[in-house]
Amino acid sequence: MSAGTGTLSMHGNRFRHNFLTALLLAPATVWLVVFLVLPFIAIAVFSVGERAPEGGYQAAFTLTQYANLPARATAFWNTMVLAPVGALACLLVAYPVAYYLALRAPQRWRLILLALVVIPFWTSLLMRTYAWMYILGGRGIPALLALVGIEDVRLINTPGAVLLGIVYGYLPLMILPIYVSLERLDRRLLEASADLGATPLSTFLGVTLKLSLPGVMTGFSLVMILLLGEYLIPTLLGGGKVFFIGNALVDLFLQSRNWPFGSAIAITLVLVSVAVLIVANRISNRVAGARRVDLI
Amino acid sequence: MTAVPDIEFRGVTKRYGAVTAVSGIDLAVPPSAFVALLGPSGCGKTTCLRMIGGFEQPSEGQMFIRGQDMAGTPPYRRPVNMVFQQYALFPHLDVEANVSYGLRQQRPRLPPREIGRRAGEALEMVRLAGYGGRKIHELSGGQQQRVALARALVNKPAVLLLDEPLAALDKKLRTDMQIELQNLQREIGITFVLVTHDQEEALSMSDFVCVMNGGRIVQLGQPSEIYDEPADLFVADFVGKTNLLAGKVEGHRGELVDVALADGTVIAARKRTALQQGEAVSVSLRPESLSLGGPTSGPLKGVVRNRIFLGSTAEYAIEVQGIGTLLAKADHLIGQGNLFKPGEPVAIGYASGTPLAFPETKNNGTNQRVNKHVEIIS
């Protein structure tokens, strides 16, 4: 029967199709399983274990590590405050830049300006943060200020320095998704809004901002999640005085070798990150309907 | 009569860098008119519409809305609203919020109940009552078109601007919307300015057609005038189908000129401008003004090459020796057996007075004066 052969060859096609799909996905899958899923399981198992007397992990099933979390409340607090504040500061700086790039910059300048936004990424964050250490440190801006008579200004090793480092380091990650969503914005919607009597400000609030919210939420959650695990900037610019969860983790795993406690903190951090992502997604879905900018 | 025109262009020119999109346009649109700006793409019609809306500023000249000079008035302070091409509906708002958008911009603020009532009325007017809670992407093209109309009309503008409003609809829907737009315009009695490149749309809907080419107004008149008495070769060719036959002016006979065609046949044609003896001209012959008969009954003789049967009419492509292929359109009368077959020899006649002779050199557009326009229209 001809219908039978048709079905058969379709099965053949589908098999080939599935095989090809599997083949294409294999490297990424293997990578993720080996370097993400398995370590994650290991950490989850560690987190309900106990510290071996000489350090490291000893099998057990206990929730004491989680009960101990308040012992690191300061690190959590610093992270939970500086991550959203940092992301927000980043957003406030990034939005006007993205807006200018997408809607105001002359077409032929746009690519060049975008490249300028990305170029700092070509140098490692470590180098750039070291540069900030110098700029903010005793021989940098404070020395300059001393020249004009303003003495004893302390910039380095303050929360302000950490915030500055955060905004500087993560700005491109915030600019790009917002730029994408503004760039995609149908200009005729802005004209329609003006045509219907909306002043430039109400057009911005009612159309531009709302339709760029998916980009804003993407940028915000991206930066926020990276900040939750930030280690480098608080270490270099906070001088150990502004202690993040990331610093606590390094301390617990490498110095005091309390792996189970470190694991419990890590798991908690992951859960918080996931919660942030979900909330951000909800917000942007509710406000902007089906239009989304997915970078993560 | 001196009613203040709803829209008036006085010597308006718009340049983008070195490109002149609109050059020296004078146009006055009286109240309650349905005007179509018709022309090929790049003729400046959309630029004109955008200048009325306030999205472009004239490089030269003045633009008035109801007697008020609009120089420096931003779009949000103009008493006009636009139905955008592809509608430009707000994707993040539902139908009701789209329609009430303009009402919510008014200062002092309107009471919410008033906003709800007027948005409801506008939706009813476009027969979308009960669709207020729908999302834009859940609507069909025709429904989106209606939402765009309701959204533009809710503020009770002095003039409604329509930028190719039917281009995205299928043919059947387009015909329905043409009738609906016409009715709507009569019902609410405000001026509609329609931009279109579709001559059928312009002819069927509007009271007046403004044909544009190369940034100028080439002709302004009622649809039948545009079709029957095209001002120049461009209009004759662009509006409706026509046969253009090349020839030379042989002589003058009163109002008519005798034009010798390439095969020697002489056609008596009307003219729009003075023509010189021996001048190269094109003679426009509308397909429906041609009559087909037995092989000996007309001045031009040819052979049917193709027949396109359209039901009530049939179109023929007829090859005429020495002249080329002519398009003829004949009514089909059931039972009269007046259909010709491909390969059949026919004679082509034309009603006297229907051929129109135009000089070969293209007219650069006639810049008729404002007063004349007002006179033509009112």
Structure, explained:
- The complex is a heterodimer of chains A (296) and B (378).
- Chain A is mainly alpha-helical and 296 residues long.
- Chain A has a single domain, classed as MetI-like (MetI-like fold), CATH 1.10.3720.
- Chain A is 76% helix and 1% strand.
- Chain A has a two-stranded antiparallel sheet.
- In chain A, β1 and β2 (57-58) form a beta hairpin.
- Chain A is globular.
- Chain B has helices at residues 45-53, 95-99, 101-104, 112-125, 141-153, 171-188, 199-205, 223-228, 233-238, 370-377; strands at residues 7-16, 19-29, 34-38, 60-65, 68-69, 80-83, 159-163, 191-196, 208-213, 216-221, 243-253, 256-261, 266-271, 280-285, 290-293, 300-309, 313-320, 324-331, 345-350, 356-359.
- Chain B has a 6-stranded mixed beta sheet, with helices on both faces.
- In chain B, a hairpin with a 3-residue loop joins β16 and β17 (313-320).
- In chain B, α4 (112-125) crosses α5.
- Chain B is globular and about 80 Å long.
- Classes of the chains: A mainly alpha (296), B alpha+beta (378).
- Chain A binds chain B through residues 186, 188-189, 191-199, 202, 206-207, 210-211, 287-291, and chain B through 53-55, 74-77, 80-82, 84-86, 88-92, 101-102, 105-106, 135, 137, 151-152, 155.
Structural topology:
The complex is a heterodimer of chains A (296) and B (378).
Chain A: H1 2-47, E1 50-51, E2 57-58, H2 64-67, H3 73-104, H4 107-118, H5 125-136, H6 141-147, H7 159-184, H8 187-195, H9 200-228, H10 232-238, H11 245-255, H12 259-288
Helix pairs in contact in A: 1-12, 3-7, 3-9, 3-11, 5-10, 7-9, 7-10, 8-9, 9-12, 11-12
Chain B: E1 7-16, E2 19-29, E3 34-38, H1 45-53, E4 60-65, E5 68-69, E6 80-83, H2 95-99, H3 101-104, H4 112-125, H5 141-153, E7 159-163, H6 171-188, E8 191-196, H7 199-205, E9 208-213, E10 216-221, H8 223-228, H9 233-238, E11 243-253, E12 256-261, E13 266-271, E14 280-285, E15 290-293, E16 300-309, E17 313-320, E18 324-331, E19 345-350, E20 356-359, H10 370-377
Parallel strand pairs in B: 3-8, 3-9, 6-7, 7-8, 13-20
Antiparallel strand pairs in B: 1-2, 1-4, 4-5, 9-10, 11-12, 11-14, 12-13, 14-20, 15-19, 16-17, 16-19, 17-18
